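Hi Prof. W.,

I finally got the Orotidine 5'-phosphate decarboxylase prediction working! I wasn't sure whether to trim anything, so I left the full sequence exactly as given:
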Amino acid sequence: MFKPIIALDFSSWPEAKRFLSLFDSESLYVKVGMELFYQTGPKVIEELKEMGHDIFLDLKLHDIPNTVHKAMKGLAQLDVNMVNVHAAGGLEMMEAAVSGLNEGTKQGKERPLIIAVTQLTSTSEEQMQKEQGIKGSLKDSVLRYAALAHQAGLDGVVCSALEACEIRNHIGSQFLSITPGIRFAGDELSDQKRVVTPALAKEYGSSAIVVGRSITKAADPYQAYRKMKQLWEA
Ligand SMILES: O=C(O)c1cc(=O)[nH]c(=O)n1[C@@H]1O[C@H](COP(=O)(O)O)[C@@H](O)[C@H]1O
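And this is what came out:
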């Protein structure tokens, strides 16, 4: 079972390090996204690995297949546990991402898991229909992207827990549903639209939950993480 993945959405390494110091020597699963990586570069990955944490490098690649192939080949050398792309880049782009990752993974190392973002959890069905011009339901759009990611050989998708059950039923339980948009009951939703509590995410069949602000902005982030973990693992 995946531990809750903590989104290290900080704009500098000292800030992220201060946050991590609250966890003592506990080994965590952390997510490094654009905010931190664009400030620090690959150095942050080395530091986190030295601390013994598992790493989801969330750079959401979305470009022409050749560029994504080469970028993934480079990212594979960082030896992280998970990377992602946008499914909207299409089948050929996702296949190129997988082959780049395979080529770049050092001998004797496991290739990182690769997942595809479907519809961002900050998107509502109404926004999707209005802004992206997609006529059907949001669930159908997520399922279409998930099927495409599966066809391209990816390990799973990023979606909201609200869609996890359907993905399992259609594609199978081996295919991962990594789900952000997680809040404790009563927490501020902020920019997230498709939001689920940790207990419900588990009930709906999420493979892993990704949590940022409900932990990082809590008065006591360590206790918030413990509570999140307990509800997720119960
Ligand atoms: O790829 C992601 O990680 C991601 C996809 C998505 O659809 N929604 C989403 O919120 N995320 C990320 O998950 C984290 C959620 O943060 P909080 O809303 O603070 O819990 C952020 O780092 C987002 O970049």
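Residues 5-233 form a domain with the TIM Barrel fold (CATH 3.20.20.70). Does that look reasonable to you?

Thanks,
D.
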